[in-house]
Amino acid sequence: MQFSESPSQVQHSTDAAGTPARGRRPSRWRVVDIVTASVIGVAAGVIFWAWGLAWGPISTALALTPGLGGLLAGGWLFAGVLGGLIIRKPGAAIYTELVAAAVSALIGTVWGFDTLIWGLIQGAGAELIFALFFYRRFGIGVALLAGAGAGVAVGLLDTTFTSYAALDAGAKLTYFVSAVASGVVLAGLLSWFAVRGLAATGALSRFASGNSARAIPARATPRGN
């Protein structure tokens, strides 16, 4: 990571799709990026822990159809997508997802510090999508793909290294598909809406994500209104 607090390197100039202005350097991390990503990770970690408490009874109900437990996976995937959409820097998705996993483990998740492995791989699944677009596009399509990428990561992990590995091929496929769908909706779509909501409050004014999210409705307003 490269670090900078220089105002000239703050990414405020973007188009409606969230593309940084030409000549900017999205790889530079500022102190505000580190602090914000850490706050996202800590807050998400508490949610991860609470989601883990709810996982037991809900997964038991879903067990009537083997594999549908994957629908719950998205509750552990949103940190990386949200962090990537807000920070818009290389490593943001992995960092926020890993911090969230660490916090949930420290609080006392039933899976212990094995969650760090899941956090790293799930964050990498989202990070890969942002990297494929060179960290220059952050619209709803990319958000959904990032959620799907994290879903693919957890689907592969869970059907290979957990009790889900003992399921038959059909149930494994059901789990994998439902995990990806959960990632798209809970991690991708909800994170995109969260960014727009935060931008509307002005909380993201120091980020390109805040400016580009506000630019979309502003450009849709007819002149003279």
Please write out the topology.
Layout: E1 2-3, E2 28-29, H1 31-62, H2 78-87, H3 92-107, H4 115-132, H5 140-161, H6 169-201, H7 208-219
Parallel strand pairs: 1-2
Helix pairs in contact: 1-2, 1-3, 2-3, 2-4, 2-5, 2-6, 3-4, 4-5, 5-6, 6-7
Region (Disordered): 1-24
Transmembrane segments: 31-51, 63-87, 94-111, 117-135, 142-167, 173-195
Biased composition (Polar residues): 1-16
Which radius of gyration do the C-alpha atoms yield? 18 Å
Report mean pLDDT, rounded to a whole number: 87
Indicate the overall shape: globular
- How would you characterize the largest beta sheet? 2 strands, parallel
Give the SSE order as H and E letters. EEHHHHHHH
Number of domains: 1
Per DSSP, the total helix count is 7
How helix-rich are the residues, as a percent range? 55-70%
What structural class do you assign from the helix and strand content? Answer: mainly alpha
Strand order of the largest sheet: 1-2
C-alpha termini separation? 44 Å
Plain-language structure description:
The chain is mainly alpha-helical and 225 residues long. It has one domain. It contains seven helices and two strands. The chain has helices at residues 31-62, 78-87, 92-107, 115-132, 140-161, 169-201, 208-219; strands at residues 2-3, 28-29. The relative contact order is 0.16. Mean pLDDT is 87; it is low at 1-19 and 218-225.
